Amino acid sequence: MTVPAAYPADAEPAHPDMKRAVIRNGSTVRKGRYVLYWMQSSHRFSENPALRCATILANRLQVPVVACFVFMPGYPGANRRSCQFLLEGLIDAEKMFNDAGIGFHTMIGDPHSAVLRLSKDAAAVIMDEGYLRHQQAWYREVSLKATCLVISVEANVVAPVRKVSSKVEYSAATIRPKIHRCMADYIDPSPDVLPQYEADENLVEDRVYARSLEDIAEIVSREKGPSPSPFFHGGTQEAVRRFSAFLSSGLDAYQETRNDPVSGVLSHMSPYLHFGHVSPVYLARKAIETDSPGTEAFIEELVVRRELAMNYALYNPSYDRYEGIPAWAKRSLDSHRSDPRRYLYSFGEFEMAETHDPYWNAAQEEMRICGKMQGYMRMYWGKKILEWSATPEEAFETAVCLNDRYELDGRDPNGYAGIAWCFGTHDRPWKERPVFGMVRYMNESGLRRKFDADAYVEKVRSYGGRL
Ligand SMILES: Cc1cc2nc3c(=O)[nH]c(=O)nc-3n(C[C@H](O)[C@H](O)[C@H](O)COP(=O)(O)OP(=O)(O)OC[C@H]3O[C@@H](n4cnc5c(N)ncnc54)[C@H](O)[C@@H]3O)c2cc1C
């Protein structure tokens, strides 16, 4: 794959967003009725580099830009909770696209089939990029079969993952300097670009896949699984509102209190980042503009740790499996396979928060009820699943399954890397001990040293947790 300097090749200077773009096939821009923007992982209008690339190209070719989102029933791991959040984001996005004069088409079906159908009338297809296996497979399929130019744009990270590194990075220490070296090139504000040629209503008539948001809402209402979160609602407006509150009353103390699930204030941006309701560039820029003492720690999490996870998903084919953890960790866990476990729980007992440990149960209940567990508790939660499962493989599977089912930010590179971290990924060997081998261990006295763990249990009880 090559990174284009500009498209079509002409005398105009490349737009800064083109630094995020990758040409995916050998086709060229052709005469078409529109430029198609396939909104796949960045569900937003504002601060969307993929949409900006599509609009700039459409303006240059003097055609409208058409945006599409394809809702796929049976999307891997999707359920009522995650779909409701997604829908709330789409309602927001549709309004903003329409206000900007961009035709926004919602469809139901196989994403790559629907996009290929729309691509037949397109001059080019521009898509945003996610890093999971099935997303990359869709992009490959569209790129291979479309007969026009296909470009993907890394719209959901600060520094494009491919530009930062071309291999799996060992840890935050190895990727940090690479990200910091190029971050300044990607953080500047780029204004949203408006289309010069409006799409008329009949430009796209697709009788196979096209459906309204009401049709999608109807499918969502029939989805099974955990109920929608009572605390988190999707959409760009909600993300921006929450983030403004964090900037004014959380960021200053972020460095000291982020690991305290009782008094600490977090940004709560992870579900919005997962669905692309908000741009990480926007969040990073706004944080940097404050000059707050918490900015450095926040950028470390939002950019370095998050983009280390994207690197892990893109370059490690087993990112969501036990096989993906480092060889030293596998060897060490293997040599402690037959160590006696003091407690052993089944998947159902973990899911229903029926362990002997009130802190672990509180974390599980927080996730089950709210759809988002506090960050420090996630580490403890994952470590204890490893300690209380019959095998490390079973533990990994349990953690991935629960995380993806209940967390609004689940099914994300961050989730897979976070769970893999509990098994040694992006970490170093520690002093050897039972069950864990040389994988880092955590215990409840560590929690008590850091914060009032009993107050955390009370807090979750007040949400209705069965504790
Ligand atoms: C076992 C385990 C499972 C996890 N599962 C997920 C998951 O499914 N989805 C997910 O987005 N994150 C996951 N994380 C990482 C982290 O815990 C969450 O990103 C964080 O708690 C989200 O809350 P916040 O947005 O309020 O965070 P804030 O502290 O406000 O941080 C801002 C942003 O920085 C990023 N970030 C923060 N901490 C981390 C981290 N440790 N690693 C990578 N990025 C980070 C997130 O994008 C977050 O939104 C997991 C971590 C562990 C140990």
Description:
The protein has a 6-stranded mixed beta sheet. It folds into 3 domains: 1-155, HUPs (Rossmann fold, 3-Layer(aba) Sandwich), CATH 3.40.50; 157-190 and 235-315, Serine Threonine Protein Phosphatase 5, Tetratricopeptide repeat; 317-462, DNA Cyclobutane Dipyrimidine Photolyase, subunit A, domain 3. The longest helix has 21 residues, at 295-315. Helix 2 (80-99) links the parallel strand 3 and strand 4 (103-108). It has helices spanning 49-61, 80-99, 111-119, 133-145, 161-164, 172-183, 213-221, 236-249, 254-257, 270-274, 280-290, 295-315, 327-335, 347-351, 358-370, 375-387, 392-406, 413-422, 444-450, 453-462; strands spanning 21-23, 34-38, 65-71, 103-108, 122-128, 149-153. By secondary structure, it is α/β, with parallel strands linked by helices. The site of flavin-adenine dinucleotide has 28 residues, from helix 10, helix 12, helix 16 and helix 18.
Question: What would CATH call the homologous superfamily of the largest domain?
Answer: HUPs
Task: Give, in spatial order, the strands making up the sheet with the most strands.
Answer: 1-6-5-2-3-4
Poorly predicted ranges? 1-11
Oligomer: single chain
- Reading the helices and strands in chain order gives EEHEHEHEHEHHHHHHHHHHHHHHHH
